[in-house]
Amino acid sequence: RGNADRDGRQYFRRKHRDVSKVDGITLHRMGFSRGDDISRYLGVQAHFVVMPNGDIGQLHQLDRYLYSSSALNANTVGVEFAGNFQSDKGKWWSPDTMGAQEAPTDAQIQAGRFLVGYIRKELRAAGGDLEAVWGHRQATSLRRGNCPGPQIWHGIVPWANKRYGLECVADDTVGDGNPIPETWKDWDDSGDAMA
């Protein structure tokens, strides 16, 4: 689609930013899913959405400064994963109204990995480079303790760090954020915390 089609809702277009200064990705979980139709996510305030079937939708251009990633807004690309996924404590956020998925689909994890490479390529083309992948919880203390969740973190970040030689920021925080929990770092592919 053309660039005009990938610019989401106008009320999220707060201001422009210099893409050459963007050096990270912030991973998010939505807490809900609207299925696999990109048009149902136009109100989401993130640069990209990864739908349950693994399709990726670009909602905003990379030069858009969005209020989605708290203290990481200025220099990261926001990526939302559709779904209300189980936390490492076996809980969901409002499952009665938002649904409850055990974990992101394999297609979502593969799409997330692809997206890291795509964003890295786009940042390099703009004169910048990708240095790190963050979790939203690392930039805020405001009810985002489980964002993006152990499955998304473990399925994408260690792989991306190794594949692209990115900086491991799991213990880092920005603003009033929280580091990645040890239980997320030891999450195995079956969704159980490793001993």
Provide the helix percentage: 10-25%
The helix count comes to: 4
Strand order in the sheet with the most strands: 4-3-6-2-7
Give the N-terminus to C-terminus distance in angstroms: 46 Å
Contiguous low-pLDDT stretches (5 residues minimum) are 1-9, 190-195
Mean pLDDT: 86
What can be said about the biggest beta sheet? 5 strands, mixed
**Shape annotation:** globular
Give me the oligomer status. Answer: single chain
Q: How do the helices and strands follow one another from N- to C-terminus?
A: EEEEEEHHEHH
Count of extended strands: 7
State the secondary-structure class.
alpha/beta
**Percent of residues in beta strands?**
5-15%
In angstroms, what is the radius of gyration?
A: 15 Å
Walk me through what this model shows.
The protein has 195 residues and is α/β, with parallel strands linked by helices. Helix content is 22%, strand content 13%. It contains 4 helices and 7 strands; from the N terminus they run E-E-E-E-E-E-H-H-E-H-H. The chain has helices at 95-98, 106-125, 150-164, 182-185, and strands at residues 15-16, 24-29, 48-50, 56-58, 64-65, 76-81, 132-135. The strands form 2 sheets. A 5-stranded mixed β-sheet has the order 4-3-6-2-7, with helices on one face. It has a two-stranded antiparallel ribbon with strand order 1-5. A hairpin with a 5-residue loop joins strand 3 and strand 4. Helix 2 (106-125) crosses helix 3.
Short description:
The chain has 195 residues and is α/β, with parallel strands linked by helices. It is 22% helix and 13% strand.
